[in-house]
Amino acid sequence: MICISSGMCGLFGVVRSPFADDPGRASDVFVTLGALAEERGTDSAGVALLGGWPGLGHDGCRVVKGRGRFSGVWRTELLAELDRAPVAMGHTRWATQGSPAEAANASPMLVAGPGPKSAGLVGTHNGDVDARGLRERFALPVPSGTTDSETIFQLLAGRSGSSGLTGVLEALVGRAALAWVDRDHPTQVHLARAALSPLAVAVDSEQNVYWASNPRWFRVAQQYTRIRFATIVMLREGTYMRVGMERVPGRRDRPQVLAAASFVPTARPADHDDRVWTGFTDADRRQDLATLRHRLTPPDLAPVA
Questions:
Q1: Of the given ranges (75-84, 227-236, 251-260), which has the lowest mean pLDDT?
Q2: CA–CA separation, 295 vs 278, rounded Å?
Q3: Per-residue pLDDT tens digits for 39-53
Q4: Are 152 and 202 within 8 A, CB to CB?
């Protein structure tokens, strides 16, 4: 029997523009998004700072995470590294699968690649999927923790190209929103919204690109930081995109959509719960409900809650 929890995690992050005059402005937004994301989880929290800069350690990827609220895990001494990181991602956890007491179950998660030449990926997930079904269908390494998130990222770590990645996303049964970075390409972020779990993307006036689990967080962040957003968009279910910068010697590019694809997500009847939109305004919730387009598993095949 699989227990489907309606707890929600929070995702947030930024891909920096090289044209921003002051990197501290985007950093302030990132930290503000982390504080707002506490409404979607306080079991644990964490951040990943990426981009290949010498000071980050772990081959250009530093992950800091711990039990409790984001405000308790975040440290001001990380600000200098955050300002230098071309990509930063964050997560607040509401445990649905896997004990919150085990560090291996906290995010962002580092997952090894399929071969010795692959650096693997670092990722965050909001949702609850049938991990047992995925492990029965696919040959995967022994996990280090007990979450569905690790199962998803082990599958993604072995795939490349939009068709290969959307093939994994279509195999998921349940709620899922995802943000992950292939560590071989640390200035590019993969974003995906499968069934139900919300994900919004915003671009500010300096061309920094952000993502978050609630579009309202961007409007609040705009009130308390020096950033102004030019665009805030709620991703539709079944959307995959790769956002970032192509590293070309001697050229500075703004973050942009480098690849995009659509797929058909699948949910279970028990996945439908208003707590999917925890923290949403009534208007945002109604607007998102009107765009849902996932398919449902037949009731006789759906796991029992």
A1: 251-260
A2: 22
A3: 999 999 999 999 855
A4: no
Burial class (CB in 10 A: 0-12, 13-18, 19+), 251: exposed
Q: Report, as an integer, the average pLDDT of 233-241.
A: 98
pTM over 0.90: yes
257 DSSP assignment = E
Q: What is the dihedral of CA 178, 183, 188, 190, to 10 degrees?
A: -20
Taken in order 271, 48, 235, 200, the sign of the CA dihedral is positive
Find out whether 208 and 14 touch, Cβ atoms under 8 Å: yes
Amino acid at 100: P
DSSP-H helix ranges across the chain:
23-36, 70-73, 79-84, 131-137, 148-157, 161-171, 215-224, 282-289
Domains in the chain, start-ordered, CATH in brackets?
10-296 (3.60.20.10)
Q: What's the rounded Cα separation, in Å, for the pair 2 and 147?
A: 12
The letter for the amino acid at 84 is R
Q: What is the pLDDT of residues 72-126, one digit of tens each?
A: 999 999 999 999 999 999 999 998 888 888 989 999 999 998 877 778 999 999 9
Q: State the Cα angle at 265 between 263 and 271, rounded to 5°.
A: 165
Segment 3-9 mean pLDDT = 61
How far apart are the C-alpha atoms of 265 and 195, rounded to whole Å? 5
CB neighbour list of residue 256: distance below 8 Å, 6 or more residues apart: 243, 244, 245
Confidence check: pLDDT of 54 > 50? no
Burial zone of 298 (CB within 10 Å; 0-12 exposed, 13-18 middle, 19+ buried):
exposed
Read off φ and ψ for residue 171, nearest 5 degrees. -80, -15
Residue tagged 């973050």 (tokens): 255
Structure tokens at 252: 């500075």
- Phi and psi at 102, nearest 5°, equal -95, 125
Return d(Cα 90, Cα 217) in angstroms, integer: 14
- Joined tokens for residue 94: 């509401």
Secondary element (H or E) of residue 188: strand 188-193
